[in-house]
Amino acid sequence: MRIERELQIKNMLGIHARVAARIVAVTNKYASSVFFRTKERQANAKNLIDLLTLSCPLGSIVTVEIDGSDAKGLFEELQTMADDKFGEE
Amino acid sequence: MADKIYDDTVFKGLGVSPGIAIGKAFLFAQMEARAAYYNLADDTQIKNEIERLKQAIAKSIEQIEVIKTNLLGFEVKDPIYILEMYAAMLRDESFVERTTQNIRNERVNAEWAVGMTVDAYAEIFSKLDNDYIRSRISDVQDIGKRIIWNLAGEKQHHLPEGESPVIIVARDLSPADTAQMKIDRVQGFVTDMGSSTSHTTIVARSLEIPAVVGMEKISQAIRTNDTVIVDGTAGLVIVNPSPELIRRYEARRRDYLIARSEMLVSAKQPAITVDGYRMQIGCNIEFAEEIPSAIEHGAEGIGLYRTEFLYINRHSLASQEEHRINYESVIGVPPLEWATIRTFDLGGDKFFSDPKLAKEMNPQMGLRAIRFCLKEKEIFKEQLRAILGAAHRGTTRILFPMISGVEEIRETKKILNGVKTEILSQGVVIPQDIDIGIMIEVPSAVVMADELAHEVDFFSIGTNDLIQYALAIDRINEHVHYLYEPLHPAVLRLIRTVVIAGHKANIRVAMCGEMAGDPLNTLILLALRIDELSMYPLAIPRVKKIIRRASLQEADALFARVIHLSSAKEIRGLVEEYMWDNFADILPARDV
Questions:
Q1: Is B199 a catalytic residue?
Q2: If pLDDT is split at 50, 70 and 90, which confidence band does B38 have?
Q3: Rounded distance, CA A70 to CA B290, Å?
Q4: What domains can be seen in chain B, in order of their start residue?
């Protein structure tokens, strides 16, 4: 199964180190491959350093591309985290 | 190995623990490994390098997990999150992928390949527009260092096999470093960093082995197995000395040991001036094992028992029982008359075994000591319960560090009383006469000393921190260390304020910083009427001997002359001149 959806980054600091660490902790639980894409770059969302270099501030829109048998569950979890502002402000 | 010519190279540093050691150097491995470059000739080597890389990364993750576990009991969220981030970076597949490609395509060794990857990331990060994320490159560099370090020589981190004694040479030593050494094989310490108050110094003194610190770059000049002479008295290190020089230093070493034993003969006599003023002399210790030596050197009580070792470099928090057993081993040991237990002074530079974790901007002024205790009350209460539980052994004083104002000591006392009530109700017997004191080490506590004196039974002036805070000097920064001056007129006035405030309220005033143990300061401290000087045990015999020969009258006369001087330099000049004119035979030999 292949999903391509958008996520909005709603927390103040964007995808900074702590958030990125939280994201990779989630993505690595899943078998599916997962990439985050912005206008400029693409990052493997299972790799922390990669994800950091995406440098997504507040308000940015990230295209999430997931491919694999558990793609749906993974996207839902990411969506919940993003809606919850990754537990931040 | 090439034949070594005796080069007699002499390096000058700060002698912080006296004595002479002659032996083989052991270079204690640093985290900042400089990677060497090798070209890989054949494909088997490529395979080997990739395997080494994977093992080094696995090892690095393992180390991070261990540090993380060690910290878990403390509820310190930030460092743990940094560790989780490090672990996640180490698991970053693209990092591994890039590095293995470097090994394969560029045919370089794993260390070099890691360096290339880190450099490539530095390039990428430098182009990001977000300041915060751009600065995260330092974390990538840190994990790179750790991998390289694990690649380069995990073995170097441990002393070589065997029983032969060594002289440890290092950039700097943390409590975690010294804790993992087989310390009975260490004959001396030589470090680039450090001062008279740093960890290396404290350990060297407590073990009575010579140490020279603040040598800037000596760790790059000495190699493992070089023969080294460490003269901790003069602050000299000689690398690859000629046999002639070794003979001379062996003679000096014997002289030193003889002089020391002569000093010890009179060490147990009390410190009473010729005109009858008795100074109480305590010792500063960290381990119960130091007590026999402290007694031998003439300690009358324990003026400062540091409890930090119960917290650092462990896999879990020490149990209350462990704390109690430790306190019982230092309280009521005859002939020592009292034991002052300082509650934990964690935070700042002492807490984290990995200095990278203590990344507060200004850790010395951050969440440490009593501030940490008042925040993490449960950890604090465990310690208080253990101290109270051990107090039946003998005269116990409890000393709270880093009090900056009245609210803190009141809240501290409230917690202490709560713990008392709680354990009394469990039937534990607590002696009535436990004295409560505070460290005077924050300038605001000096200003408020008259108010604080009504709250406690004694003061103990912690000069190391007080001088550092009052003069705004980072004591471990080698560039400003020269400004660290106990005889600064401002420092003398601060101390005088504290003593006057304490005595007015009828409480004792002790001093437990390095300043107390330097015999050059003894007359000044007599004139200030400090009641108790507490110092590292080795310093006691000299200070006592000076007090026995001195009179309050001459101390007061000297002080009257210096207190009118406005510069630290003038005061030091005058005090040193007086001391050398009158006590030269007692003072440690001057550098020749």
A1: yes
A2: confident
A3: 61
A4: 9-29+171-259 (3.50.30.10), 43-154 (1.10.274.10), 271-583 (3.20.20.60)
